[in-house]
Amino acid sequence: MKIKLINYPKDPDRVCAAAALSCYSEKPSSEIFEEISDEKARKAISKIVGMGHLSVIEHANFTFSIEGVSRALTHQLVRHRIASYSQQSQRYVSMNEAQYVIPPSIAAETKAREKYDLLMESIWKSYADLSKIVAKEDARYVLPNACHTNITLTMNARELWHFFTLRCCRRSQWEIRKMAWLMLGEAKKVSPILFEEAGPGCVRGPCPEGEYSCGKPLKKGEVPDDLDQEIQSGKATIDI
Ligand SMILES: Cc1cc2nc3c(=O)[nH]c(=O)nc-3n(C[C@H](O)[C@H](O)[C@H](O)COP(=O)(O)OP(=O)(O)OC[C@H]3O[C@@H](n4cnc5c(N)ncnc54)[C@H](O)[C@@H]3O)c2cc1C
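Above: query sequence and flavin-adenine dinucleotide SMILES. Below: predicted holo structure tokens.
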């Protein structure tokens, strides 16, 4: 899995803070943008977001290149509707190489891993055989959920906040959760104020999951133990 933030505004924090403050000022956002300090931007964003006036953080868009994840993950990802996606096509791109995600639970069990790899080998052989007879758009029907894919995703900061709340939570599946934490790490590097309190619901208050709570709430700024190393190392590129 590789996550790369490939595009974002020049100064996402100041853009949103200037937009927010322009609502209450005689000055336009262009002037406020030029003169606002980080401290004032932090105060403005924290106040407005705290009041639930979230439209001001829609002014910052972030584009991520997400590489080598499973089609199972992207199926979960595209349920998030306030976003733009461009996904590698299995109609136009040949899936000749057997590239697939191995869930850690399967990787950890020798017998499960053997079974899994054998099945993948057989699937890719069937794909290759079918591709000689029919178009790849039909041959691809035999490919598994585990198949590698690349997807480009653009979300604004408001949708990213929502996405991180749901997908950084331990109730989300390991692969999309890992991706969400890596995305959050990247977003925080370029926009530390906007994403200061982003993450699973528990970093901001009581767990919203009620009886399904994992019982392991995180503190503000804390990252989960199982992802600590990758996130702390500042590398948004990890092998799974
Ligand atoms: C742990 C977990 C388990 C899940 N399990 C399942 C499952 O078993 N089956 C399943 O089908 N899905 C499942 N999902 C997916 C889930 O139901 C949502 O489809 C997904 O998380 C996207 O969330 P969303 O709709 O809030 O967000 P987005 O699509 O990102 O939308 C953001 C927000 O915009 C607003 N919005 C967007 N579209 C509309 C609309 N049409 N009308 C009104 N308001 C709108 C809502 O406020 C919404 O919260 C699961 C998700 C998680 C995190």
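Residues 91-146 form one domain.
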